[in-house]
Amino acid sequence: MGSDPHRSKHVARKRFGQHFLSDQGIIDAIVREIDPRPGQPMVEIGPGLAALTQPLVERLGKLAVIELDRDLAARLRQHAQLDVVEADVLKVDFTALARERGVPKLRVVGNLPYNISSPILFHLLQHVGHVQDQHFMLQKEVIDRMVAAPATSDYGRLSVMLQWRYAMEDVLFVPPESFDPPPRVDSAVVRMVPYDQPAVVDEALLSELVQVAFSQRRKILRNTLGKWLEEKGFAGEFDVQRRAEEVAVAEYVAVAQALA
């Protein structure tokens, strides 16, 4: 999407959490990490002013984009190679998107609105069977939590619920001055690749278990998860004389499997 001097400048909307990527060096680095190839079925969430969209579609040939902002969606429709889905991403059925395109799995990318990044991640978790990989720009502190190891202060509910299902890595640091307007936080890019054979577990039960465990993260689990496990009739071995952040993902999953 070339820069048309007659085109009015889009003003970023705070309610949509809009910060537009403007640093060409960072854009190039993100595209290298995504490594788009011709014909791959890809969906971009929140294309905005198309800073990332343009280099992606040049390499792919076609690209689906999900944009909630009506004015931006209208601009994007002027690009013949873009399939524009004007919608709230939290209401988009990614399983149906894959089926409509006649493909088993989609590649999903985007500069996610920071004010709803966690809900988007959990929404996509419902469609993970139809996702090949995900590359997202997020607040660095959110990515730190996503990829955190046990026994660290960043390790929490987000770490467990995503690490159970994805292999993840922080692949790129993005400073505030890479955006217009600059956010007040550092950003980063995360790569998320769903495991081919994840542990089979009741996701709702795992979610409840993890939520109870981290509800009072400073206290030992005897006072929180211990009581919850008793109520559920858990008869297995589990050390409740430690804090939630000391329990590995595989242990949480094993307890949820034993309860199911």
Walk me through what this model shows:
Its main location: cytoplasm. Residues 26-196 form the Ribosomal RNA adenine methylase transferase N-terminal domain. It catalyses: adenosine(1518)/adenosine(1519) in 16S rRNA + 4 S-adenosyl-L-methionine = N(6)-dimethyladenosine(1518)/N(6)-dimethyladenosine(1519) in 16S rRNA + 4 S-adenosyl-L-homocysteine + 4 H(+). Its EC number is 2.1.1.182. Belongs to the class I-like SAM-binding methyltransferase superfamily. rRNA adenine N(6)-methyltransferase family. RsmA subfamily. The protein has two domains: 14-194, Vaccinia Virus protein VP39 (Rossmann fold, 3-Layer(aba) Sandwich), CATH 3.40.50.150; 203-259, Helicase, Ruva Protein, domain 3. The longest helix is centred in the first third of the chain and has 11 residues, at 24-34. Helix 8 (203-213) packs across helix 10. Strand 3, helix 3 and strand 4 form a beta-alpha-beta unit. The protein is 33% helix and 18% strand. It is of the alpha/beta class and 260 residues long. The strands form two sheets. It has a seven-stranded mixed beta sheet, with helices on both faces. The chain has a two-stranded antiparallel sheet with strand order 1-8. It is built from ten helices and nine strands. It is elongated and about 60 Å long.
